[in-house]
Amino acid sequence: MTHLLKNMSNSIWHAFYALQQDGQMQPGIVSKSKLKVLTANIGTLMDLHGVEKGLDHYRSTSTLNFEQFIYYLQEEVFSSLTDATTRQKYRNLQGGIDEICWLVCHKSYLDRPQAIFRDNSVYQLFRVFCLLAEMEADPMDTSYLVTMHSDELSRVASQLVTSLGLHWDAEDFAALSSSIGRFRFAIFLAVLESKYSGGSSSDIDGLTEAIDDLYETYVEDVIKKGYLGRKGFLLLPSQKCSWYVLRPGELSYYKDSHQKEPCGVISLTTNCWADAVTISGKPDRRFILNMPEQRCVELIAEDHRGRLQWMSALQIAIQHSNKEISYQRSLANQRRSTRQVLLQLMASKQEKEETRLELQQERQARIAAEVQAKELTELSKQELAKVQELEELKQQLEIRLYEEKQALRDEEIVRSLQGRFLREEWEKREKLEILQQEQQELLELEKLKRQEFELKQQDNEQRLRDAELRLEQLEAEKQNLNVELQTAIQKARRAEEAQILLGSQLATTKRTQSFKSTVKERPLVIDNRMMPLQKNC
Predict the structure, then answer these.
(1) Four-residue CA torsion sign, 316, 317, 320, 326
(2) Number of alpha carbons in the 13 Å side-chain half-sphere of residue 200
(3) Chain-wide mean pLDDT for the chain?
(4) Would you list the domain boundaries of the chain?
(5) Cα separation of 158 and 295, whole Å?
């Protein structure tokens, strides 16, 4: 079952493209956080839990393109399937993955103006489209596109138109397909809804039934369906009419066409076969389904034509009973291979036509070359005489050429001498320029030194002037101090004279006072002596 991912690539691409449209990334890439949700849902459907966690360690980028994402699904998710997976489980997985992808991308397809198809019918057409479409590289960038070829759309549209009881105009569709080219799902849906649905939503039930038939044919792989009679194997054989649905590998029967679950399923293998029943050498409406491992079943069609159709359909169902790829998908692959072969044939035919035209052009060119050769032969005879004349002229020119060469040699010698003189002059000139530059640098240096010396001299002069001014100020201060000193000396002399005078005066005063005190002390002594007498008295 390794081809499951290949069959699911178209629907997974639609989900990837929808996630890409929702984000603000550059075209062709989707962030891993969004892809984790899609991977987790697919893993849960396949009983693989936590398979989305491996995306964190897959590549060092935070985004993936579609090719990288498909490779991860192949290695980590779909590799768990084995060849032992039953056909029914495989069909359920396909339906579940298509439903998951549809839940991701359905918004942009269901929100459309003037919708006619029901939402479930749009989903059924989505699965039909994914089954029949092809994935190809987008010429505008490095991503991919899923488109349907006009032949496949023609089959789907013609079956839908026929089911609705309308007329199918192949020429009109050819003009439409030539103007559009390849059909993406949005265009596929718009074409079916606007052009091949009858143009009105009044018969919506009829449209739904017609799309159901398309879905059963392409997705559910129904080869044929209809009422058949079945002969019993009781003591009293009876005929029971049931609704039969034929798929590759199985024949299911129901009570009527509206019953959902089958009453029984007859398994078909490659060892089974169908035989017609003849009565008196004439074919009958009955035919027998022979099964070596089971009891044979005798079925009765409505008419001889129906019997032939059922026997042919049974043969197809038996042939495809053990194949992994569904019947409709194998037919689509065959048609795709046929288209590729036709394209190669057309390309080879075009190459052959181009080769034929090239050969024809070469033949015409050869004829023209032969005519031109004859003309050139005649011209060559006329030119032989000219050649002889030219030979003579050539000899003369060779002599002149030799002389010219000799003159050129002499001229070269003179030029070489002149060149040597010029080189010497240039060398001298370069030396003089170097000396001149050095002198210029010395002059600049002397000029700078002179400027520095002048600045220092000006500074010294300024200092000298400041010193002279300071000296003058000091001289003036000195004279003032001398005057003050003379004044102070005179004052000191006067003070000394005054002090001397004062000293003399004080000395005189002290002598006078001492004299007075001496005179005063003497009577006191007498009085002291006389005082006791006075007291005694």
Answers:
(1) positive
(2) 4
(3) 86
(4) 223-325, 383-516
(5) 40
